[in-house]
Every structure is written in structure tokens, then in C-alpha cells.
Design goal:
Blueprint lengths: L1 E5 L4 H12 L3 E5 L5 H5 L3 E3 L7 H9 L6 E6 L14 H22 L3 E10 L15 H21 L5 E6 L16 H14 L7 E4 L4 E2 L3
Parallel strand pairs: 1-2, 1-4, 2-3, 4-5, 5-6, 6-7
Antiparallel strand pairs: 7-8
Helix pairs in contact: 1-6, 3-4, 4-5
Bound molecules: NADP nicotinamide-adenine-dinucleotide phosphate.
NADP nicotinamide-adenine-dinucleotide phosphate binds next to helix 1.
Length: 220
């Protein structure tokens, strides 16, 4: 089993890469920032990958053997805190680039490398749910993750003929840099639940949005 994961330099992505490697799987990490520790855990690491660099991602993807990946976990993400009074359009654009456009571009670029019957997990967030938005704020993060959710449903349609399932997963409220260390669970617990959901979901559920900790469907 070979899994490609983005944003494994730290946080939830690091924990997922370590756990997948520990159970004997081949893990390929696409990281922007070097993480020498990952290589010591048996992960094949590509450093210096800026995921919004379309040409760079295309060049990297061209080096993958067709059908060599079982799963892609698009985990890398960016949250810039904002509110109605202070949001900046440049920050909103950047979050769209990182959280919505980069994962979409990555999956299309790597689609030939993904086996028929493979899986794509897009790490979303429940705050990207329109129906679940009970308090507002976080304009850039919410809007970019809502766009990711739509990209994921479209990818599910595009890849269904090849038996490839696409899933949107909320990792819980996790103590990482992205939350400033706030959260209900640590990255290792979140990673274990995300991996378990990715293992268990099937093509029958393609295009669905899940709370990976509670194992319940989230509303769009
Ligand atoms: N933590 C939570 O409570 C929570 C809740 C809901 C959803 N999520 C989602 O879970 C995912 C992982 O979050 P986290 O909490 O582990 O965040 P994190 O600790 O801040 O880690 C973010 C990862 O994404 C990478 N990344 C960001 N922008 C990138 C870019 N332009 N190109 C390449 N890599 C980039 C970072 O690389 P560098 O080290 O190079 O910056 C880092 O590896 C994100 O998609 C996030 O939105 C997290």
C-alpha cells in the first residue's frame, strides 16, 4: 500500500505519515519545509514542494509511475484568522490558493499515478460547512474550505468511472500550530482516526463529508 501525503512537516500530516509508515506502508510525503525526522521514520520525503506552484507540482507528478499510488491524502492547509472588521482580500486569496486550488491541482496532476480503485482524502474542516456555520467569522478559512468541499464533490464525479473514492474529512479540533496550540485532541489521535476513516470508506460513499473523530456525516 502506498500513500502520498501533503503537509507532513508538522501537525496532523506529520502524525499521519509516521503512523502509516509504522504499520509498514510506503509513504511519500510532499513537504515544503524539510523534516529530517520523517526520513528516519521510513517516509520517502520530497522537500521544498510549494503546493501552489503549479509548474513545480506538474514536474514532480511527471516523475511518478502510473498506477503507483493507492491513496492521496491532501492535508496541507493554511488558516489566517480574520473577522468582518479586519479581513484582507490578499489573505482570502492566499487561503483559496492553498486550501482549495492547490489540492484540486494536486489530485488532477497525480490522477495518472493513482491506481484504479484508489482513494483520495481531502482534509477539510467542519467550519467549511455552510449549514453548520452558527457563529460566522473566519472568512478566508471558511470560504476556502467550502470551495475545497465543492472541489471534492466534483473530483468524486470525475474519478468515479475509475473506482476512485474521494472523501472530505474533518480532523477534529486539534492542538497544532494552525490552532495556536488550542484544541480538544492531539495530532496523533486525530491522525489515527483520519487513517481509520480513509481505510474504511468505500466507493459507495464517494463525495461525502465526514467528522473523522465522531464518524458522523457532516452537512454541507
Ligand atoms: N488543527 C485543527 O484543529 C484543524 C481543524 C480542522 C481542519 N484542519 C485541517 O487539517 C490540515 C492540517 O492542519 P494542521 O493543524 O496539522 O496544520 P499545521 O500544523 O499548521 O500544518 C500545516 C501543514 O501544511 C503545510 N502547508 C501549508 N501551506 C503550504 C503550502 N502552500 N505548500 C506546501 N505545504 C503547505 C505546512 O508546511 P510548512 O511546515 O512548510 O508551513 C504544514 O506541513 C489542514 O488542512 C487544516 O485546515 C485542522
Amino acid at each position: 500500500m502506498t500513500t502520498l501525503i501533503t503537509g507532513a512537516s508538522r501537525g496532523i500530516g506529520f502524525a499521519m505519515a509516521v503512523q502509516l509508515a509504522a504499520r509498514g506502508e510506503r509513504v511519500v510525503a510532499l513537504n515544503r519545509t524539510a523534516s529530517p525526522e520523517l526520513a528516519t521514520r521510513g517516509v520517502q520525503v520530497h522537500d521544498g514542494i510549494e503546493l501552489t506552484d503549479v509548474e513545480g507540482v506538474a514536474a514532480l507528478a511527471a516523475g511518478f509511475v502510473p498506477g503507483s499510488l493507492d491513496r492521496i491524502i491532501a492535508n496541507a492547509g493554511l488558516r489566517i484568522d480574520d473577522d468582518f472588521a479586519d479581513f484582507r482580500l490578499d489573505d482570502l486569496r492566499r487561503q483559496f490558493e492553498v486550501n482549495a486550488l492547490a489540492p484540486l491541482n494536486l489530485v488532477r496532476a497525480l490522477a495518472p499515478a493513482l491506481k484504479d480503485g484508489g482513494k483520495v482524502a481531502l482534509i477539510s474542516t467542519r467550519v467549511g460547512s455552510l449549514a453548520d456555520n452558527g457563529r460566522g467569522g473566519e472568512f478566508g478559512y471558511r470560504m476556502s474550505k467550502a470551495a475545497l468541499n465543492m472541489a471534492g464533490v466534483n473530483l468524486a464525479h470525475a474519478l468515479k468511472p475509475r473506482g476512485i473514492g474521494v472523501f472530505l474529512l474533518h480532523p477534529g479540533f486539534v492542538r497544532t500550530d494552525l490552532t495556536g496550540g488550542q484544541g480538544l485532541i492531539d495530532a496523533a489521535e486525530s491522525a489515527a482516526k483520519l487513517i481509520a476513516m480513509t481505510d474504511d470508506l468505500t466507493i459507495a460513499e464517494t463525495g461525502s463529508f465526514w467528522h473523522a473523530i465522531e464518524r458522523t456525516r457532516l452537512p454541507w
